[in-house]
Amino acid sequence: QVQLVESGGGLVQPGGSLRLSCATSGFTFTQAVMKWYRQTPGKGREWVATVSKSGNYTVYADSVKGRFTISRDNVKNVAYLEMNNLKVEDTAIYYCNQLHDWGQGTQVTVSS
Predict the structure, then answer these.
(1) CB of 25 closer than 8 Å to CB of 77
(2) What pLDDT, on a 0 to 100 scale, did the predictor assign at position 93?
(3) Which residue in 13, 52, 70, 99 is a FRET match for 36, CA 20 to 30 A apart?
(4) What confidence tens digit (pLDDT) does each residue in 86-105 have?
(5) Going along 8-91, which residue ranges are E strands?
(6) Torsion angles phi and psi, residue 82, rounded to 5
């Protein structure tokens, strides 16, 4: 079955960096557009970034543009989200997604 497993979250100070990973199995990774979303308590799930099947094209939400980088490794079947210059408002549970499939999420907390 399809599995998406996020990792790499944690506690970081404002201005810090984290790299999230999404390990996948159960589907043809090279045929999947991969996305990252995030969710905070009381708010809906917010789209963060998308990477094309080849990895050559990326799109970002305005709130993270210039600070986050989405990428993928089509040999390892892993998607990544590099997050730099983190802000308190980036605190959320981060999820990777392909079509209707979601991982369990990884918590990112930005706090001094």
Answers:
(1) yes
(2) 98
(3) 13
(4) 999 999 999 999 999 999 99
(5) 10-12, 18-25, 34-39, 46-51, 58-60, 68-73, 78-83
(6) -85, 125
